[in-house]
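Consider the following assembly input.
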Amino acid sequence: MSKLLHIQSSPRRNRSYSTAVAKHFIHSYRVTHPEDDIETLDLWSFKLPEFDGATIEAKYRILHGQTFGPAEASAWDDVLTIVHRFKSAHKYLFSVPMWNFGIPYRLKHFLDVIVQPGQTFNFSPESGYTGLLTDRRAVIVCSRGGEYSSAPELQALDFQKPYLRTVLGFIGIADVQEILVEPTLTTPDVLESSLEDAKAMAADLAGIF
Ligand SMILES: Cc1cc2nc3c(=O)[nH]c(=O)nc-3n(C[C@H](O)[C@H](O)[C@H](O)COP(=O)(O)O)c2cc1C
């Protein structure tokens, strides 16, 4: 039995296109993987630990091979709660709107919390950085108001999809499939067509994920 974790990063809930496509994926996934657990983490429904003060000091102490004081130990417990929830899954489904060419700040915050030495990557001066989640895989559903796929000058503006691939690769998740929903800020017929394509791809991918 596997666990699929859906990380939902649009606050638009029922109006969100990335969420709608992810829900379509989950609907198909349930049919093809009836024995699996599926959990959704709505990043707008709970408070993430601030990544400052003792928390950031704890991260640097780990990187420098130093021990924690009481403040770092307590701050790190809050980080580990989120990290363990993330690592309890074997497969990830990220639904992500493009915000100002990148990702919503709540997802960036979540990634800042889970990308941690000794948990999702290792570091040593001798061997550098090693991602630890090499046995996991991910699907990313990226929605954007505009269209960023057709020409190199448009692709160069896309800091959403390449950033997600980079940070997931950094923690060892190299097997990443993508579903684009673009453009969404367009005429109703173009929008309907891009949604249909994205949902069809989601259903196909869910069957083999
Ligand atoms: C704060 C904010 C910033 C946005 N920035 C961009 C952008 O840089 N490029 C773009 O094409 N669309 C941008 N959009 C539009 C969204 O990407 C688009 O509406 C998308 O469908 C939102 O995904 P959702 O429906 O899952 O929430 C932005 C929307 C918001 C709310």
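The chain has seven helices and seven strands. Ask yourself how this observation constrains the way the partners meet.
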